[in-house]
Each structure stands twice: as structure tokens, then as C-alpha cells.
Amino acid sequence: FWHCGMYMGNGGAEKTQIYSFQITPCSITNPPVPSFTTSNTTVCANTPLTFNDQSSNFPTSWSWSFPGGTPATSISQNPVVTYSTPGTYSVTLRATNGVGTDSTTLTNYITINPAPAIPVATSNSPLCTWQIINLTTPTVAGATYSWTGPVAFTSALQNPTRTGTPALSGNYILTVTVNGCTSLPDTTVVTVNSIPTTPTVTSNSPICTGSTLTLSTSSITGGSYTWTGPNSFTATTQNNSIPSATPAMAGTYSLTVTVNGCTSAVGTTTVAIGTSLPLPTITQHFSDLTSSATTGNQWYLNGTLIAGATSQTYTATTDGVYTVVVTSGGCTSPTSAGLTIIGAGIDELSVENSLTVFPNPSEGAFTVSFHSNAKRNYNLKLTNALGQIVFVKEVSNVSGDFTLPIDISTYAKGIYMLSVTDDSKNQTVKKVEVY
Questions:
Q1: Which of 74-83, 261-270, 281-290, 311-320 has the lowest mean pLDDT?
Q2: Which of 20-34, 148-162, 184-198 has the lowest mean pLDDT?
Q3: What is the pTM of this model?
Q4: Residues 6+ apart with CB under 8 A from 324
Q5: By the 8 A CB rule, do 266 and 247 touch?
Q6: In the 8-state DSSP scheme, what is residue 208?
Q7: Closest C-alpha to 223, from 201, 269, 256
């Protein structure tokens, strides 16, 4: 036995249900009366709509017609339909039970508003750290805009901006809404590149005129290099060599490095280029040697550097060949001609404390005098700095005061050694300077 009943479901909507009771038989005597509703009859294109069957007299099957919808037909009791094309649409429901079939059509029941066209999202990517990200889209009449992006970015501006950092790289998504209808999204990809670190620039400064100037910096992966400097210098290589340097090349050299279109701050180095130094000369006064350069001197003995010997004048204490090298403004002179010293540090003795040379120094003409307390024979000999004998004389039976004029003005200027030796091989040596 069956009984037909009615109940009120959740929310108060009237529904039909067949309850099983062993009482009066169920009897359906009329065909269904088709009826349906939907939650919203005006929606945007592509918005899903659920149609709810409200037919009476207990239909057992349904046949829906949705011209222009997807799907266009359905046999579900409560189908879901979408409309992609704006317009107004009619809906027909045909309901059937064991007694018969009936249908109803609601003309222009559904209104579909157009969704806005997909917007065009653009940006000024790629860009560098601290540059401004500009997100742009053409104006859509009556639209509101919705942007989303990396690091929880949102904006309702048509053309929003934000200060760029590499963390803000990524997809920026835009939708527009017109009359309550929202477009499908468009995406623009933003890339924010890091700025390279400021390059460290080095050179071999200071250098001399005519030398090769070198400019260098460390390698940066993917970097391109831009050098500028004095005398219209430009270069695009990492390291540079400039031969035959001139004073015009002195000054500040600048370098920037570009990676992925981003340029570093400027790194600099200052180059000093000195004038080549002339060959120094040495003058001698007894054991005192004097360089022609007032500063920057370094003295050498037999080619070996004399530690601490950097003054203009150096006093020789050891026999040998003395030279000097001058350094100034990064430039080093050629090595001077050598000066040979013989008898350095010999104490000047006199014959019985009376040997004199006058004048001394002289231009080469001088008089030797001494006093002999007893009659003796003497050998007088004059040698140059190379040990060569330039004058020799034997005198006999000298007693008392003795004088001898000597003229070597035709010989080279410099230091000479006068030795006076008696019969007993006692020797007295005196330095003679000729200028």
C-alpha cells in the first residue's frame, strides 16, 4: 500500500516525498504542473546557474530546454547551466508522471550580461632594483580594476606602481569588472634585476712616461664593462693595457659594470704619470760623494744597495765603485756612471807632521811642501781614482823645508792621492782635489 504526502524541507521550500505506510492506497489522478525557479535571473556570461524544479503532482521525469545555454538540454531534476553569449533566454520544462505530461516555458526568463573583454596587462619590465615598476592597462569604460602580484600585492588602480626589488619579480594578474561582471584574467611578467656591486678598479700607478699603464678589475659573471678616462680614453674590456704612457694620460679612470641591463655605481682609480728622470752624476770631494739630484737618491757599492744611503751626499768608507739611482714621482733614473774610490778612510799623515798641499782643492796647479829634520831621499807619487800614476818624482838629500810645484791641470778633474815615501819606507798620504 502507498500513501502520497507532502512535507516542508529546510528553508521552507515545499517538496514532495512518497512515504511508505500500510494505509490508504496512493492515487495520482492528474498530470504534473511544471514549475521551476533559479536563484538569479540576471547574471554575467559564463556564470553557472542552478535551475530548481518546483513542479507539483509528483513528476517522475523531466526534460529541460535551454536555447543558447550549455548544456542546451537536460533530464536532471535540478540542472546547472551556463550562458556564454550576452542576451535574454527562454527556458522550457517538460514534466511527466504516470498520468501524463505537461510543459511550461518562461519567455526571456534569463538575462545574460556581457563579461568585459580580457584586459591587456603590461609593464615596463625588465628593470633594476629601486626603479619603479609601472603596471599599465588601457582604460575600460565603467570598469573597476583588480591587480594581484608577488608579496601579497593588490591594487584597485588602473595603472599602479611600486618600487622594484628582485623579490617583487613574478606574475602580475589583472581582471576588470563592468556592471558586476568580471573579465577573465590577463598576466604580465615582471623581472627586477639586481644592480651589480661597485667595481674595484686598480692600476700600476705611479708610472713613468713611456711605460705601459695597466687598468684592471675583478671579473663579474655576465658583466659588460665601460671604461672612461683622460685623453679621451674609452674601453669595453675587463682589463686594459695602454702602452707608451704620456703625462696627458694621468688622472681619474672610471668604470661601470652592466649585468642584465642594470649598471653599477662608478668605480675609480687615479693614475699618476711622472716625467722620465735624467741620468744622475756624482761629484767627489775627498771621501764625500754628491749626487746631482737633491732627493730620491739610493747609493750602491759595486752594484749592491747600501742600506739607508738615500741622502744627496754619501761619505765613502770602503774602496770600490760607487753609483747612484734616483727615484721620483714613480720614475726611476738610469744608473749613474760609476766612481771608483781608492784609499777611502786613510788617515792623512804628514812628513813629520808637515806635509801640505796648497791650494787644495785647486784647478790642477798646486805646491807640495814638507819639512825633513834629517837628510833623506823621498819618492813623490800622484795617482788618480783608478790607481793610475799621473806624476812621480824622486828627490835626494832633502833636509829642512822642501817645496815642489806640480801642475796636472791637463788631467781629469777628481780626487788624486799624493804619497811621499822616505828611505825607510815610511809613507805619508794626502788627498788632492782637482776641480
A1: 281-290
A2: 20-34
A3: 0.55
A4: 280, 282, 289, 291, 293, 297, 298, 299, 300, 314, 335, 336
A5: no
A6: E
A7: 256
